[in-house]
Amino acid sequence: MIRVLIAEDEELIREGLRCQLPWRSLGLQVVGLAANGLEAVRLCRELKPRILLTDIRMPLLGGLELIQQVRELDPRIVSIIISGYDDFSYAQQAIALGVSHYFLKPLELEQIEDKLREIAGRLRLEGRQSRQRAVRDRLLAAVLPFVRRQYFLELIYGPYESREVRESLSGLGPAPERSFCGVAVAQVQVQAGEKGQANDALERRLSRLLRNEHYQGEDVYLLKRTAAEALFVVVFIGEQEAPLRQRLERYVQGLRALPPVSAAVCGTVAPRLNDLHKSFGEARKELLLQQLLRRSGLPAGGGLAAPAARSADLLSALGQAIERGDGGQVALLLQRIEAEAAAPQASEGERTAILAALFRCLSPAAQQAGLNLETRFFQAERETAYDHGDACFGELLAGLREAALELVALHSSRRDQAARHLIEKAKHFIERRCAAWDLSLEEVADHVELNPSYFSVVFKNAEGVNYIDYLTGLRMRKARELLGDATLKIGAVARKVGFQSPGYFGYLFKKHYGCTPTAFRGPA
After folding, report:
1. Where are the beta strands (DSSP E) in 219-346?
2. Is the peptide bond before 176 cis (omega within 30 degrees of 0)?
3. If pLDDT is split at 50, 70 and 90, which confidence band does 204 have?
4. What is the pLDDT of residues 285-296, one digit of tens each?
5. Distinct helix (H) and strand (E) counts, the chain
6. CATH for 2-128 (3.10.129.10, 3.40.50.2300, 2.60.40.640, 2.40.340.10)
7. What is the crossing angle of helices 452-463 and 416-433, to 10°?
8. pLDDT for 394-410, tens place per residue?
9. What global pTM score does this model have?
10. Residues in CB range of 255: below 8 A, 6 or more apart
11. What span, in angstroms and rounded, lies between the C-alpha atoms of 153 and 234?
């Protein structure tokens, strides 16, 4: 029932309004009667009515002053004036105060009843809309972290091509498309007691560790983990380029001082969210370089020196030869580069600069061809040596030589047929692992030994949808089958198809099929 307060100094009119109007049939309830304005203010404060009927002239406090004070208590209160004064100045003031109607005495109860019916209907509609908004806001609050996760994890591997998808997700909260953005990537050591811990628990603990005075946001995501380390991406968003770059650099410097963080780097600052993958690509490349240098016992700090001019020329020529697919020239240039690095007069710093420059020379070509340098250097049979820092400079150089020669071979074929086979292999892997909430593009790309960014592009070209949309569609189809089992609760179905949150599962299911899981299942 909607609560009503009557303020009228004439008892006959006050009681007449209370007794002669069909309040209950109107869905209204008179909760208080006041004989003066001050009493009406007190009762409004205590009883919190939604409708106020008030005389315009009363002792102690007039109706217009009453309405003004009551609106300060609750701007939603609907005020109706009843008055014996047909004065234009009163009407003007009433309009300025947002009064719903102005009735003149002698009162026509039928007119007041009609107006109250109209107001009650409007308030009930507003109440329903307010409740619906509250439900929607609670749902959004529950699913927004999962939507943001999907949004950013897809963006770091490539741009959204669908403006509709990008705009709908941006509307749920990530950030305006024109925002400056960048990422930091951190490799964090997993403690011995946490090696068997679930990834979601590990992400919660370590994401707290990765926040500091330079980053208080929520977009800290676990990309993948091994028995010993976990890889995280941290998304930065800002309105100005230079301050954002400074924040990124200070943040990474702070991370490097934390004992569990074995390596931390930041990417370039991109001018819009759809370019976030460029920042991520730069960060991953630099992180891998740091890991290779560190695990080979070479200096891995920031600000590596550039190689000497002669070596730089050789590296430039190498990049061009790889692009042409000239295997003979690539082999010759590699020999000369290795001779420069192995020269007796070459210092450790010079050798490190040559190795770093060679890695940076190969990285763009490797990404374009799909060669995953990370899995190449950290395969299971080599991981132990690298983890203990036992890989020597020569081994690392030999690994880069092998990668360069493989890139030449890939140049001619571009894995056209192999790519199709690898995508099929990836799809079988996704089918087996789709119940895992943390099945990431990184994990799938590693399984088929492709560069993650390249895999993202090839997968989209082969399947016509991006990886996350494919995975979501697969999970929705499996969920639809499971919903046929009436003994399974909705939450259990959500978990069986890889969703931590039943609310987020329901949100995606409704987007996919146009109805909630409960409605899809039908009456019990």
Report:
1. 220-225, 229-238, 261-266
2. no
3. confident
4. 888 888 777 766
5. 22, 9
6. 3.40.50.2300
7. 90
8. 777 778 888 888 877 77
9. 0.64
10. 184, 186, 210, 212, 261, 264
11. 10
